[in-house]
Specification:
Elements (H helix, E strand, L loop, with lengths): L6 H21 L5 H8 L12 H23 L7 E6 L2 H9 L2 E2 L3 E5 L3 H4 L8 E7 L5 E3 H5 L5 E4 L3 E6 L3 E5 L2 E12 L7 H57 L6 H87 L4 H43 L9 H26 L4 H24 L14 H41 L3 H10 L1 H24 L10 H15 L6 H17 L4 H12 L11 H15 L19 H15 L4
Parallel strand pairs: 4-9
Antiparallel strand pairs: 1-3, 1-4, 2-7, 3-6, 5-6, 7-9, 8-9
Helix pairs in contact: 1-3, 2-7, 3-8, 7-8, 8-11, 9-10, 9-11, 9-12, 10-11, 10-19, 11-19, 12-14, 12-15, 12-16, 14-18, 15-16, 15-17
Length: about 675
Amino acid sequence: MELKLTNEEVEAIKYYKEKGFTNINQLLITDSRADIEFLNDEKNEGLYINYDESSVVNYIEIIKLLYSAMLKTYLSKEKKESCKFIKNSTITEIEKYKNEPYIDGFLFANIDKDINEEIDSDTLNNIKMCINVDENIPYMKLNEVLNDKSRDVLISLFTKVKEISEGSEINLNNKTIRVYTLKLEKQDLQDMTDSDKTALYNYIISNSDLVSTTLSNTVRLEKENISNYESIRELEKQISDMELEINRKEMGRDYSESAKNADDSDLKELKEKLEVFKVHSANIFDNIKSNNKFITNWKKNITVYLMAECYEIENDIKEQIKKANISKEEEFQNFARIKKENLATETFENILKEVKAECQDNTIVVNTLLNDINRLITRQQNFAKIAGNLGASYSALNNAFKMKSQAEELQNLIDTIKLKVKSLEEEKNTTLSSRKLLDISDVNDQIGILMNYLNNPKTSIAKSRMNRFDEMIVVEENELKRDIAKAILDIRGEAELKKLKDDTQIIESKGPLKRFIGIFTGQNKMDAFMLEQIEVRQNSIKKTLAKKLRLDYNYSVHELMAEIKMFIRDNEDDELVEEDISELRGFEKEISKNFVIIESKVQDIIDEKENKNLPVDSKITKNELIEIETYRFLNKYGYDIADKQEPEEILYVDTTANEIAKIVEYINTSKVLD
């Protein structure tokens, strides 16, 4: 079901293509050094970057409109498949994608043609890039939207380089072209609460003018530093030449003491001048470094915000398509009824033509179904590999191989129906053949309706608003995250229990003398209270470890990373848990390798959990302070503090294979193949 683009979305596409792509693409690059390099590049003389408040507000709105338009045009397609596009490139761009796999901006390319037809005088540095996108990455052919003759294609933001080739050479018309192949996959978008999103947006906008000013100052400082370095090199050369000259004079007999003192004085003056330049250069470098850190952090927050916005846009559009499909199903039922009545009055040739078209439609749908199942299997295998590397206990929730077996049987039956139609085409008794073809047409329509239901979500896990196989992948990924969360929790919890047991032994192993002294100092009472608090911590940790983690919880890799980083930082000097820390470092490395991690978001979670700004009344007692520390510890690491009624877990049941089997059963019982 095609969704119509709004006027605002079409205007956003025009703006991006005609004049907005430079500023918008730069905004989406998180490293501020890319902005500095762009502004200092002589090829970009006359171009500028706007990060003032009004510009940033406009750019963010355009990015959202572009993504919305792209999803409408792509997700509305009946058949989604991997594609290849071509674009001019440079070695610098190729190296960037080798070192930085995450592409946060849009990619502008051309509709796929033979690579030899793409070689032209505009090829930059004789470099071409073939971009292979899988079926999950949205893209938009601009000629379909703008009705122009361009072959421009806009590929979605937030992609990831899965693989990049070393490049092969093509010789054409005495010109050697190096061709690189870039395989992309979609990044996982991030969900965020409305309040967090609003706060992040306000931070971005309120700091935009300052960022714009800071960027201008940094460009100026870069130029000043280049000039400063030239002065330093010139002074170092002068000093070196003067030192050589003084050494030469000292070897002669006519070098008077007064002349030497004058030369030494000049040399000292040059060295002092050099030191001033070096200090100034160091100060400039520190300012540039500080400015870059501020701008980069600001741009990273834009990435986090836009990921959340795109996540919401994607869900909203999938919901629109879902509603449109429901309406479409009702229309289809009515259409099928009317078509059946009308088809019965047609000639044999027209009936045959219509039934062949129905068979082809069902073939396309079942092929799409198999592609979706294979995509699910690939993701499950990838999740199993990640879990295996971590020692987590992931097990697929959806029986994709059973689905595949049933879908292949369905595909065989649809192929058999096509063969049956072909045999009826050759029958001489067209009256009898027409009746059989009408029966097949009725079955074809019902197959189409039943298969269309497979696009609907199976259940409302996490209030899902996506199609069935997208939902399956989300649920499978959440199951992986749940298993990773459980493994991390077990390591942390057991390590904390070891530490608490050790603390208990230290207190209980105090000798008689210390206990006797403790009667007078009050230390014995303090020790008794400490043992009580240790028991509180132990019970809370044990209770948490005994719980089964729920599937209907949105497990955040950023929260998992925050827990790992906090635990490592809190315990890295403790030999008692050295092995546990080593295990968690392995988790940290594997999670970073397989998920999109925004460090600023991890740090925000750490700051919130550690309650850095929470004041403590200086008048409280030591016991009260220990109680507060216990509460903070339990809250920080998510250990159960009090008994509470847990809501009943939503069970996830895989029914897809059975639904496909029912379609197979329907065909077998319809007797159209007899």
